[in-house]
Design goal:
single chain, about 450 residues, alpha/beta, TIM Barrel, about 45% helix, about 10% strand, globular
Length: about 450
């Protein structure tokens, strides 16, 4: 998820807050969690307090550079920002009508009472001004997050390792030919395909190329492989596909001859039809994923019901990816179903049976209530406890809905949902309290640490 398309982005700043302290954060998080649970599903207070102390790994988010007054805006926060597509409604929990956002603002910035949007924006300006390049790491501390995976075109000052890890966008590599016919399918795709075209030109420029190679084999050797190697050398931990915003996720078994023919026919000009372009995309998806596996970078896939008035929710189902997951040439590649494939979570659960498939809960913990998320977690963790990772999808939504507040809201929701799920599992004799604590650590921290070799204690 990117920023609210109905509001402009604003590089605002805010008031200084005391430096993060582990015991203070633990106490504050426990108090927040316990208070928010009081009127909801009963949760074991000991489990809730323990879950609040876990410093998490955020598997998927869109943090912003700490832009100081007078500096140019941050434009590299996403490959497909949605501010250019027709306006569309947001789920209620993502709007400022959801009181979780105001509660997060009060606790994050030290505000009191019912504060206006202007007060929240002013508080954020004070914090960002005084923290400067340290603002992003301060923001992680407020949400109890140790490491955040930054889905961005580039990273920069303030978003460096070890607190931030880079995830690069691979979709432009799927579309080397003219995409005007592809874009004409919907008003959404008409706005989004040109962004991929522009980013591919940028990738080519990074390689010192001004024209595309004449053959598909040459394109893979001279563009795809060296681009992924550049990302790997820059310490990217994964690549990300947002292809569901552009086309269905049915990346079928490729016809290499048809793909090569389509590329050779149109690389010099002209527009392929849908069948020709799909054959090329199916081939390139596997070529890119194969290279990612060789370089030990995971492949993240946006799989969610989507945002946009013309988004193809049926084309964003986890089961559509099964041919790729079953491809024996891709078994060295790790795939992660980002956003958990909501609402087709049963399909996601089935895909987790694949040896190289995982799922994160990013955006689910923003769009769903804890009571809605808890049964999903219970099902998944009963069957595949080592395949589920935490994420926020924290996004920049303007002055009063900054990405740091998204991280706090999602972190609180996920921890509350885990508390609900584990309380029921302990009550029903499915797990012991010790096992529940272990599962909480796995989801929030240890599964991601193992998957990405983070070597966290």
């Amino acid at each position: 998820m990117r920023g609210d398309v109905r509001r402009p982005f604003s590089p605002v700043t805010g008031r200084a807050v005391p430096r993060w302290n582990a015991s203070a954060l633990t106490l504050a998080a426990a108090v927040m969690l316990a208070g928010s649970l009081g009127a909801q599903t009963p949760v074991d207070s000991g489990l809730a307090a323990y879950i609040a102390t876990i410093r998490a790994v955020d598997h998927h988010a869109h943090p912003m550079l700490p832009v100081l007054p007078g500096a140019p805006p941050d434009t590299d926060f996403d490959a497909l920002p949605l501010d250019g597509i027709p306006a569309f409604p947001l789920p209620w929990r993502l709007t400022l009508e959801n009181p979780d956002w105001q509660r997060a603002a009060r606790r994050t910035y030290g505000l009191s009472g019912t504060d206006s949007g202007a007060a929240v924006a002013a508080a954020r300006r004070r914090v960002m001004t005084e923290r400067g390049e340290r603002f992003p790491t301060w923001a992680l501390d407020q949400a109890g997050i140790e490491i955040m995976f930054a889905n961005r075109i580039t990273v920069g000052p303030g978003l460096a390792a070890p607190r931030f890890r880079w995830v690069a966008f691979a979709d432009p590599l799927l579309f080397p030919l003219d995409t005007r016919r592809e874009g004409a399918r919907t008003p959404d795709t008409e706005a989004l395909y040109p962004k991929e075209e522009a980013l591919l030109r940028r990738y080519l420029g990074d390689l010192g190329l001004h024209t595309l190679p004449g053959s598909l084999d040459g394109y893979v050797r001279q563009v795809v492989t060296p681009t992924l190697e550049r990302w790997h050398d820059a310490r990217a931990v994964a690549i990300k596909f947002e292809a569901a915003y552009l086309r269905p996720l049915d990346f079928d078994d490729p016809d290499s001859a048809a793909a090569a023919q389509a590329y050779a026919r149109y690389v010099g000009g002209g527009m392929p039809n849908r069948a020709e372009y799909k054959a090329l995309e199916d081939y390139l998806f596997r070529a890119i994923a194969r290279e990612a596996g060789r370089l030990q970078m995971a492949v993240h896939l946006h799989v969610f019901e989507g945002f946009g008035s013309f988004y193809d929710a049926g084309g964003s189902r986890p089961a559509l990816l099964e041919p790729a997951f079953n491809d024996p040439t891709l078994r060295a590649t790790t795939f992660v179903i980002v956003h958990g494939g909501w609402p087709a979570v049963d399909e996601t659960e089935a895909m987790l049976a694949k040896p190289n498939v995982y799922a994160d809960i990013s955006m689910m913990d923003l769009a769903l209530s804890p009571a809605e998320l808890a049964p999903v977690l219970r099902h998944w963790l009963t069957r595949w406890p080592d395949k589920v990772v935490f994420g926020t999808d924290a996004f920049e939504g303007g002055d009063t809905q900054g990405w740091e507040l998204g991280a706090v809201v999602a972190s609180n929701t996920a921890r509350r949902a885990l508390g609900i799920a584990f309380t029921a599992m302990v009550r029903d004799g499915e797990v012991t309290r010790d096992r529940a604590r272990q599962l909480a650590r796995m989801v929030l921290r240890e599964n991601a640490s193992r998957l990405y070799h983070l070597q966290l204690p």
